[in-house]
Design brief:
Helix content: 25-40%
Pfam families: Fasciclin
Radius of gyration: 35 Å
CATH architecture of the largest domain: Roll
Strand order of the largest sheet: 2-1-7-6-5-4-3
Largest sheet: 7 strands, mixed
Protein name: Lipoprotein p23
Number of domains: 3
Strand content: 25-35%
CATH superfamily of the largest domain: FAS1 domain
Domain FAS1: 40-176, 178-314, 316-448
CATH class of the largest domain: Mainly Beta
Number of strands: 21
Structural class: alpha+beta
Distance between the termini: 141 Å
Keywords: Lipoprotein
Shape: elongated
Number of helices: 14
CATH topology of the largest domain: FAS1 domain
């Protein structure tokens, strides 16, 4: 029995020794192995694995964008096929991507990319900023029409929702170039009346020129329909000569995104009395108003400017309209209506109006110990108002020291421009050169009393 116990003891020792040896060998083997590489399915991986996108991959490589679209940041890519790129090269007269500069290629490619993972169910009709930058943190806009799965009215989504680790790919049948203002108008069905008007007025080329940098306030089709109803006309009834000043009244010769819009007057490209016409912007409330129009959509970025959509067509303003479109002159308008001078001052003119603000009128009411215009008769108001009107389109640069006659034949104004424009010694011009179709308005801080 003693021998049997010894044999069992040695057997256990041998087994333990063998196990330790095997474990040691396994550990040695593990130190020589590499972890298997993690497989990825990024946007670039998907494009690289499909010969249909070989030109796209070549373009991404040339533009040094492979790394950006292979990372963890999520994007939505509208991916043109080889056929789409071949059509673009033919259109540009290029034989290959080598004929397109890296900078230009980068701008084009980034225009096909939107931040975030957007499936076709998430996308809705409207504008999306691409990641292709124009200037100052503003990016070229893409218009997506969900009804027909079209981008900018030119590229169709032929296959949607190719899911990647870092976003979505939607395959399209045309390469998109960053659009001009004209291109944006053409692409959006809600701006078809504007497009037709621009074409009829022969302004399409102007609004397509990348040498310009405009801000366009674009009326919707509904806005044009309201205008046509008010005028009892159709677009066909309006001549090029009639349309041109109306359309140019919606164009400002500067790049003005919504964040830079402030209350005050802007000069449009429409001309009146040999000067650019003024329009009033009011941002005092939660909405942005341009004359009587409301801005309903902002910052549609184009290669040659920016578009803000509005709900009314702007008509070039007379001096009376300018006052009516600015709440700071509401008491003046009330006085002009009561004195029955609105029709006169809406006539051919030209007139120069020194326009007292509401604060100026309120100071007058306090001096006269009256409550408001309702306490003043037409006979009292008329000579006061006519003392604020000078014949001719007299801008601030036309003024000089001396006496100026008014439409009140018994009252001349004494002008002093020594330091700033002063009237009768104690009245200041606080806003100058608000240009209308039939004259110019200068805002003043006191009512002129004959």
């Amino acid at each position: 029995m003693k021998v049997l116990k010894i044999n069992w003891y040695f057997l256990v020792v041998i087994i333990l020794t063998l196990n330790l040896g095997l474990t040691s060998c396994d550990d040695d083997d593990d130190t020589g192995k590499e972890d298997p590489k993690e497989e990825t399915n990024t946007i670039v991986d998907i494009a690289s694995s499909d010969a249909t996108f070989s030109i796209l991959v070549e373009a991404l490589t040339k533009a040094d964008l492979v790394s950006a679209l292979s990372g963890s940041t999520e994007y939505t890519v509208f991916a043109p096929t080889n056929t789409a790129f071949e059509a673009l090269l033919s259109e540009l007269g290029a034989s290959s991507l080598d004929d397109i500069s890296k900078d230009e290629l980068t701008k084009i490619l980034l225009y096909h990319v939107v931040a975030g993972a957007n499936s076709s169910t998430v996308l809705s009709t409207g504008y999306y900023p691409s990641i292709s930058e124009k200037e100052g943190g503003y990016y070229y806009s893409i218009y997506f029409n969900k009804e027909d799965l079209m981008l900018n009215g030119a590229a169709s989504i032929t296959q949607a929702d190719v899911m990647a680790d870092n976003g979505y790919i939607h395959i399209i049948d045309a390469v998109m170039l960053p659009p001009s203002i004209t291109d944006h108008a053409i692409a959006n069905p809600a701006l078809s009346s504007l497009t037709a008007a621009v074409v009829k007025a022969e302004l399409a080329t102007t609004l397509d020129d990348d040498e310009n940098n405009f801000t366009v306030f674009a009326p919707t089709d509904d806005a044009f329909e309201m205008l046509f109803e008010d005028l009892d006309v159709t677009l066909d009834d309006l001549s090029k000569e009639a349309l041109t000043p109306i359309l140019l009244y919606h164009v400002v010769n500067a790049f003005v995104p919504a964040a830079q819009v402030t209350s005050g007057y802007v000069s449009a490209l429409a001309m009146g009395q040999d000067n650019y016409l003024s329009a009033n912007i009011d941002v005092s409330n939660s909405t942005v108003m341009l004359n009587k129009a409301t801005v309903v959509l902002t910052d549609v970025v184009a290669t040659n400017g920016i578009v803000h959509v509005i709900d009314q067509v702007l008509m070039p303003n007379t001096v009376v309209d300018l006052a009516m479109n600015n709440t700071a002159f509401s008491i003046l308008v009330e006085a002009v209506v009561k004195a029955e001078l609105a029709e006169t001052l809406s006539g051919e003119g030209p007139f120069t109006v020194f326009a007292p603000t509401n604060a100026a009128f309120e100071a007058l009411f306090a001096t006269l110990n009256v409550n408001g215009i309702e306490d003043l008769s037409k006979e009292t108001l008329t000579p006061i108002l006519l003392a604020h009107v000078v014949s001719g389109n007299v801008r601030s640069s036309d003024l000089s020291n001396g006496s100026v006659p008014t439409l009140n034949t018994e009252k001349d104004l004494t002008i002093d421009i020594s330091s700033k424009v002063m009237i009768d010694g104690d009245i200041s011009v606080i806003i100058a050169d608000v240009q209308g179709t039939n004259g110019v308005v200068h805002a003043i801080d006191k009512v002129i009393v004959p």
